[in-house]
Design brief:
alpha+beta, N-terminal domain of MutM-like DNA repair proteins, Helicase, Ruva Protein, domain 3, 2 domains, five-stranded antiparallel β-sheet, four-stranded antiparallel β-sheet, 6 helices
């Protein structure tokens, strides 16, 4: 699933390429009986409403709220996109091939749009410059809905989210206070609990705990103040590195132009099972366990 860095990179791309463009049409092949009556575009009736609200409107800009992309339009409304496990937004030139019933939209340029991970197009916005904004989502888990800008603060789609970890006012003290709201929770679970802190997921939690020398299975209440300080510093470091290296493309994620990020080349714990720990002076091995139904990777020596 795209985490904070990947969503931020997507938002940066939207602001670079789409500001000032109008949405001239919208297409989707999301259609699920399970979503009938719900306020997302997988409900065909809601999609008709969605289309009326956004077509002909200018894109003012985009921002990130936790793992959500918020696109602001000229009529005082927004498009909310949560990319979930395999979704990622793409921008460029496409052709529509009616003969392909499964994946009719074919990326043409830039060349990276032809990457096999970019072919599962479920949603397409036609733009006034004759290009397209598309959503590739192989597992069809993504969520797309429409919200009035004035209602963003109270929408159920964004409720119960914790503070942003890269915000200037998110101090070490606030980091500690948020996590200690769940004293009996394992620290790995607490870090990815979106109601405590928003944006951190499986990859970056493993990486920050490796950096901070903290075992992911420890309960929050067992962690000392000095260790919280190390985790806080490591959190800032790995999230900023994730952005600087273009996101993590170990799995499906690609940036707006269809290109892979490079953060997976910087992993020290995540999916390094069986490898020698790369921490200087450590002779440990990276192990894998399951915590809260999530794969978790850690060093068996320096993380304690």
């Amino acid at each position: 699933m795209p985490e904070l860095p990947e969503v931020q990179i997507t938002v940066n791309g939207l602001n670079n390429y789409l500001k000032g463009l109008k949405i001239t049409a919208v297409w989707t092949n999301y259609n699920s009986a399970y979503h009938i009556g719900k306020d997302n575009i997988k409900n065909p009736k809601y999609f008709e409403y969605f289309k009326k609200e956004i077509v002909g409107k200018k894109i003012i800009g985009a921002r990130r709220v936790a793992k959500n992309v918020i696109i602001t339009l000229s009529n005082g409304s927004t498009i909310l996109i949560h990319m979930k496990m395999t979704g990622h937004l793409l921008y460029g030139n496409y052709v529509f091939e009616k003969s392909d019933k499964k994946d009719p939209w074919k990326g043409v340029s830039p060349k990276a749009l032809t990457d096999s991970f970019n072919r599962h197009i479920r949603l397409v916005f036609s733009l006034s410059n004759k290009k397209y904004l598309a959503l590739s989502d192989v597992r069809r888990f993504a969520k797309i809905t429409h919200i009035r800008e004035k209602d963003i603060e109270k929408t159920t789609h964004l409720e119960k989210l914790g503070p942003e970890p890269l915000a200037e006012n998110f101090t070490n003290e606030k980091f500690l206070s948020r996590l200690t709201l769940r004293p009996n929770m394992k620290i790995k679970q607490a870090l990815i609990e979106q109601s405590l802190i928003s944006g951190i997921g499986n990859i970056y939690s493993d990486e920050l705990l490796w950096r901070a020398d903290v075992l992911p299975t420890r309960k929050v209440k067992s962690i000392r103040p000095a260790e919280f300080k190390k985790m806080y510093k490591a959190m800032k470091t790995v999230l900023k590195a994730g952005i600087d290296f273009g996101g993590d493309s170990m799995s499906d994620y690609r940036n707006l132009l269809g290109e892979r990020g490079c953060f997976q080349e910087k992993h020290r714990a995540y999916r390094k099972t069986g490898e020698k720990c790369s921490k200087k002076g450590c002779n440990g091995i990276i192990l894998r366990t399951i915590i809260g139904a999530r794969s978790t990777h850690f060093c068996n020596k320096h993380q304690k």
